[in-house]
Amino acid sequence: MRIRTTLFGAGTMIALLLAGCSTTEKPQTAGNAVDADGLPILTEEQKAEGIVCVREPVTGTRISRKSCTTREQRERNKRLAEDDIDKVTRQKPGPVAT
Fold first, then answer.
1. SS3 of 90, please?
2. I want to staple 46 with a disulfide (CB 3.0 to 4.6 A). Which of 11, 34, 51, 76 is the partner?
3. Structural domain spans, the chain
4. SS3 call for 54
């Protein structure tokens, strides 16, 4: 039992470390300037690419997180959300128990 818990904890730790390293975004360096809200100040090149940074609330906590997305990412997320809404609203209701 203890060995299984230790292996599970080690596997979880490795997965988290790998997930934290797998990103396609440009890494921020400690020298990047930030505004009063703690968001990175974007360069003109980044603004031209359509990158927008915002603070998003995290459900269940008072802490918010920074999120920077490109125009394409926002459009894809919007399209996926609309598809999910369509799937839910087009479902046929199941049998009603009486």
1. helix
2. 51
3. 38-91
4. strand
